[in-house]
Design a protein that fits this description.
The chain contains 14 helices and no strands. The protein is mainly alpha-helical. This is Bile acid:sodium symporter family protein. Keywords: Membrane, Transmembrane, Transmembrane helix. InterPro entries: Na+/solute_symporter_sf, Put_Na-Bile_cotransptr.
C-alpha cells in the first residue's frame, strides 16, 4: 500500500476493481453463492457489533437527535435523485433505450445503502453515529417510499407489495448487533481504541464482499446480455455524470447548511448512495413480467461506480483530517 501511494494509486480502490473482475470471471453460483451470502451477512453483523462497541452512548444519542442532518440525507435520497432521474428522460431514446431509462429512473427511487455508507463515513472519520441513523432511516423508509414513488412516477405491472421481512432483516443485521456492541462496550472499548485494525479490516472486507456478491449476481443473471458495447459505455457515462452531480450538490449543501466537516461527510456519503441489496429484491416484485436484468443493470453499474469513487473520497477525507483519538465525531 505504501509503495502504491507513491504513485497516487490507492490500494483499496485497486482491491475493489480486482474483486469486481474476479467476480465477473468466477461468479459465485449455487452453494458458493449461499456461502457468500452468509459471509456477507456475518461481516455486516460484525461491522455493526464493532460500531456499537466503539461508540459511546452519548455519541449514539447525539446521532439520533441530529434531525437536520437526517433531513438533508433523506432530501437527497428521495427528492434530489428522483428529480434528476426525471430530467434524464431527455436522453431517451437517443442515448438510453426505453428499458435502460426505466432502470435509471428506478435506481433514483431506491433508498440509500446502509453498510457501505457507514463504512465509508468511518474510513473518512466522519460522524459515524449520524451516518448510522441517516442510512438506516433511509433504508427503512425506502421499504415504503420506493414502491410509492415507483407507482407514482413509473408504469409497473402487477401489484406492488412490501415484504415485512425487509424490515426484520434491517433489525436483525443492523440494530441487534449494534445493541449487543453497546452492551459489550465496557469490556472491549479500551482494547478497540488501542487497536483500530479489527474495525478497519471489517470496514474494508465487508465492502469487498458486497462488490463480489453484486457482480456475481449480475453475471449469473446475464444482466449484460443483449446490450452493445456502445450502449454499456453510454450507460456508464450517464451513471458517472449522475453521481458527479449528486456528490457536488451534497457537498455544496453540507457546507451551505453550516454542518461541521464530520456531518458534511455524512451528507456526501449517505446522500449519494443507492442500495443494491434493497433495490434488487424490490425490482422483482415491482416489475413482474418485465426484463428485470435490464432494469436493474443501471443500479448495478451505479453501485460499483459509487463504491470506487467513494473509496477514493473517503481516503482523501481521511488524509486531510487531523489525528483524533476516536474515528467518529458528532460535532454539530
Amino acid at each position: 500500500m505504501k509503495f502504491l501511494s507513491r504513485f497516487y494509486i490507492d490500494g483499496f480502490i485497486l482491491s475493489i476493481i480486482a474483486v469486481a473482475v474476479l467476480a465477473s470471471i468466477f461468479p459465485a453460483q449455487g452453494t458458493a453463492a449461499e456461502v457468500l451470502s452468509w459471509a456477507t451477512k456475518i461481516a455486516i453483523f460484525l461491522l455493526f457489533l464493532l460500531y456499537g462497541a466503539r461508540l459511546h452512548p452519548r455519541e449514539a444519542l447525539a446521532g439520533l437527535t441530529h434531525w437536520r442532518l437526517h433531513a438533508a440525507v433523506l432530501t437527497a435520497t428521495f427528492v434530489l435523485f428522483p428529480l434528476l432521474g426525471l430530467a434524464l428522460s431527455v436522453l431517451e431514446p437517443t442515448l438510453l433505450s426505453g428499458g435502460l431509462y426505466t432502470g435509471v429512473l428506478y435506481l433514483c427511487l431506491v433508498p440509500s445503502t446502509v453498510q457501505s455508507s457507514i463504512a465509508f463515513t468511518s474510513i473518512a472519520r466522519g460522524n459515524v453515529p449520524g451516518a448510522m441513523v441517516s442510512a438506516t432511516l433511509s433504508n427503512m423508509l425506502g421499504v415504503f417510499l420506493t414502491p410509492l414513488l415507483v407507482i407514482a412516477l413509473m408504469n409497473t405491472t402487477g401489484e406492488a407489495h412490501v415484504d415485512a421481512s425487509s424490515v426484520l432483516d434491517i433489525v436483525v443485521q443492523l440494530l441487534l448487533p449494534f445493541v449487543l456492541g453497546q452492551l459489550l462496550r465496557p469490556l472491549v472499548a479500551d482494547w478497540l481504541q488501542r487497536n483500530a485494525a479489527p474495525t478497519k479490516l471489517v470496514d474494508r472486507g465487508s465492502i469487498l464482499l458486497v462488490v463480489y456478491a453484486a457482480f456475481s449476481a449480475g453475471m449469473v443473471e446475464n444482466a449484460w446480455a443483449g446490450l452493445s458495447p456502445w450502449q454499456v459505455l453510454g450507460l456508464v457515462a450517464v451513471m458517472c455524470g449522475l453521481l458527479a452531480v449528486v456528490l457536488a450538490v451534497t457537498w455544496f449543501a453540507g457546507r451551505r447548511l453550516g454542518f461541521s466537516v464530520p456531518d458534511q461527510i455524512v451528507v456526501v456519503f449517505c446522500g449519494s448512495k443507492k442500495s443494491l441489496a434493497t433495490g434488487l429484491p424490490m425490482a422483482t416484485v415491482l416489475f413482474a413480467g418485465q426484463p428485470i436484468g435490464l432494469i436493474v443493470l443501471p443500479l448495478m453499474i451505479f453501485h460499483q461506480i459509487q463504491l470506487i469513487v467513494c473509496a477514493a473520497l473517503a481516503q482523501r477525507y481521511a488524509r486531510r483530517a487531523d489525528p483524533q483519538p476516536e474515528p467518529a465525531d458528532t460535532g454539530h
